[in-house]
Design a protein that fits this description.
Blueprint (H helix, E strand, L loop, with lengths): L1 H7 L2 H17 L3 H19 L1 H11 L3 H7 L10 H19 L12 H12 L8 H27 L3 H29 L6 E2 L4 E2 L8 H38 L4 H38 L3 H17 L4 H21 L4 H15 L14 H19 L10 H8 L14 H34 L2 H20 L10 H15 L8 H13 L1
Antiparallel strand pairs: 1-2
Helix pairs in contact: 3-4, 4-6, 4-9, 7-8, 7-17, 8-19, 9-10, 9-11, 10-11, 10-12, 10-18, 12-13, 12-18, 15-16, 15-17, 17-18
Length: 525
């Protein structure tokens, strides 16, 4: 009996018994169900073994919220959507692993939590004047989830103090974006069939991924494309540096035998470097394709602003960066003037200038197919301003724009779009001056922290910091025309905020060994 007990306590034997039981159970199920169960088991096992796999599942599946609610009967009655369920799962998984391993800390502190707390507190004042407690609490919970996501990513990066943990989380974000871009490509080529999304002389459709709308989809593509461009800039640079000095280093070695061994090592390194460069370039191309076929002017302008900022900040000498940005802007202007740029793109941007310069009272204006989209946006901006006039300091309640809209709606614009299509006006209407000032101050702090990470990072980590600055630029500019905290995209934003915490000193490559030792001491303690 004691021998049997000893065998049952053997971990390998327990896993073998579990595998046999699972195999028998799967064999008794119908084939489609068996395949689904097997896939879930494999994914769950991968998530337990490597936490980056859990984040990959979250970042890939969370944007499916709108698609599932539209296509799956009864999905709206689940209580929690797919992204919320997975977010709770990865949070519980992280906490459970920390408890089982007896770590002294569960969540690591990150300086990026401070601006998030500022947003929560400043917007929280709107509880006193809200028109819908349910919606306000829901919106505040979203920002709490952003804080938790930020802490999770920072904690994972610090506990696993190696470049691979950080790279794994970045890869998870980019893979999720590439999946959405491929879905958008299918829609662009005719998969959506939505008549109101015809573009380019009725030959293609605007892509919207699983977001249901092209504009937030384009915003998602632009955010991740900025991140990808930043990371790829350093990876590609390192690749070309290796090519440049490869043969010089080979011929400087003292003996033929040493030279051969060194060349073999260099070939292995070059293979890894070239493979990584090809992968990051492929991801950049896929995300750029998704941004283009979204046909979203706000997303295009947001990414253009992000690209200018990244060009300015990429060189160590800012004067060179300003010159590069000026060259890009001048080249774009020249392409428009000379007619090199596609006419459809020029027309799209010329319409966009009307959004920037033509805002005014839309009451009494004649509505046509040409100006409908612009006037609709202006009507919602105007309603937001009237809401702010009625409650200038604390607003009508965080998240309560749609509830309040019937009171402020304009004639001919009775359908509420859910938000003001300008997040700053949206914050002013919902949270008043207190909330708007807190929101702007928070993003000012985030930009300063990101600049600090950029100045103190080297190698591909510097590229990551550069990409994150591009992400924030895109978000802040695109927010002039849309709300991007939708369809669980706030989870991705929270994760990228966590990456800033992971980059800040002393959490860099030089301090990796000391951090790993500290983590080991925590586990032993």
């Amino acid at each position: 009996m004691s021998a049997l007990s000893l065998r049952l306590t053997n971990p390998q034997l327990r896993w073998a018994i579990l595998a046999v039981v699972a195999g028998i159970g799967i064999a008794l199920l119908p084939l489609p169900v068996a395949l689904a169960v097997a896939a879930v088991i494999v994914i769950a096992f991968a998530c337990v073994v490597d936490y980056s796999a859990a984040l990959l599942v979250l970042f890939t599946a969370a944007p499916l919220k709108a698609l599932i609610e539209t296509e799956v009967p009864g999905a709206l009655n689940w209580g929690l959507d797919i992204g919320q369920m997975l977010f709770l799962a990865v949070t519980v998984l992280w906490i459970g692993q920390r408890i089982l391993r007896r770590d002294r800390f569960i969540f690591a502190w990150s300086p990026t939590l401070v601006p998030i707390i500022i947003v929560i507190v400043s917007a929280g004042f709107s509880v006193w004047t809200t028109l819908s407690y349910q919606r306000t609490i829901k919106e505040l919970v979203i920002w709490v989830a952003i804080a938790v996501m930020c802490a999770l990513v920072t904690s994972h990066a610090r506990r696993n103090a190696s470049r691979y943990a950080l790279a794994g989380m970045v890869a998870a974000l980019l893979i999720g974006g590439c999946v959405q871009s491929l879905i958008g490509l299918y829609e662009f080529l005719g998969g959506s069939g939505a008549a109101h999304l015809w573009i380019l002389d009725y030959r293609f459709f605007r892509a919207f991924g699983s977001f249901g709308q092209p504009n937030p989809f384009g915003g998602y593509m632009g955010l991740l494309l900025a991140l990808c461009v930043g990371v790829s800039s350093e990876i590609i640079k390192d690749f070309f540096i290796q090519i440049r000095f490869k043969y010089q280093q080979d011929h400087s070695l003292p003996s033929e035998a040493t030279r051969r061994g060194h060349i073999g090592d260099k070939k292995s390194m070059m293979l890894k470097s070239s493979s990584l460069a090809i992968l990051i370039l492929a991801a950049t191309g896929i995300l750029a394709l998704g941004l283009g076929i979204s046909w979203s002017r706000g997303a295009w302008v947001g990414f253009a602003a992000a690209l200018v900022v990244m060009l300015i900040l990429y060189p160590r000498r800012r004067a060179i960066g300003i010159g590069l940005a000026a060259l890009l802007i001048g080249g774009g202007a020249l392409a428009v003037v000379t007619g090199i740029a596609p006419p459809s793109i020029i027309q799209r941007f010329s319409d966009f200038t009307q959004d920037l310069t033509g805002f005014g009272d839309v009451r009494g204006q004649v509505i046509s197919d040409a100006n409908y989209a612009v006037l609709e946006r202006f009507a919602h901006w105007q309603a937001a301003i009237w809401m702010a006039e009625d409650s200038p300091y604390t607003g009508i309640g965080f998240g309560a724009y749609e509830v309040a809209y019937p009171k402020y709606e304009l004639m001919n614009w009775t359908f509420a779009l859910g938000h003001a299509h300008n997040y700053y006006l949206n914050m002013l209407a919902e949270t008043g001056l207190i909330g708007l000032i807190g929101y702007v101050a928070a993003w000012g702090m985030i930009l300063l922290l990101s600049l600090r990470a950029l100045d103190r990072s080297t190698g591909w980590r510097r590229g990551l910091a550069l990409g994150l600055l591009g992400v924030w630029t895109h978000l802040l500019v695109h927010s002039l025309f849309d709300k991007l905290y939708v369809n669980n995209l706030f989870l991705h934003i929270g994760a990228m905020l966590g990456l800033i915490g992971a980059l800040l000193p002393p959490y860099d490559d030089k301090g990796a060994a000391s951090i790993a030792q500290q983590a080991q001491n925590n586990r032993e303690g």
